[in-house]
Write a structure and sequence with these properties.
Blueprint: H1 34-64, H2 66-76, H3 93-113
Length: 129
């Protein structure tokens, strides 16, 4: 592949890189660990900024740019969310009976307070199916 020069003397990016960018003896490139040091320094600075201003910035974004806040929240959510709304299909008979008893105990005071004795026209006589 041939490097095609432009009018300004620079290449089009096709072919070999310019000679000054090629690895030569003694030109080892970036020192080892440079990228890691840069990444660590960035994360340390980011943490310091978060600790000093993070919560206040969140509240400011919620008030002034709620759409951006929602984008961040949505981006943090897992892409594949498995929600089992009907957990009763996996319950044993004993677990179902226990759930029914708890629900009965929870709603009984409300039923008693609202005339569950049949005074409101409803039939409270249990029927067998």
């Amino acid at each position: 592949m041939v490097d095609t020069p432009r009018k300004n003397g620079k290449s089009t990016g096709k072919g070999k890189p310019p000679v000054e960018h090629q690895f030569k003896v003694g030109n080892t490139g970036r020192p080892k660990g440079t990228r890691n040091k840069l990444g660590e320094a960035f994360l340390e600075d980011l943490l310091a900024a978060w600790e000093s201003k993070g919560p206040a910035v969140i509240h400011t974004v919620i008030e002034k740019r709620p759409q951006d806040f929602l984008k961040v929240v949505a981006s943090l959510m897992p892409k594949d969310l498995n929600v089992n709304v009907n957990q009763m299909g996996e319950m044993t008979d004993e677990q179902l009976l226990d759930r029914i008893r708890k629900l009965d105990a929870t709603i009984k005071p409300f039923l008693d307070a609202h005339g569950a004795d049949g005074a409101d026209g409803g039939d409270t006589t249990p029927t067998a199916h």
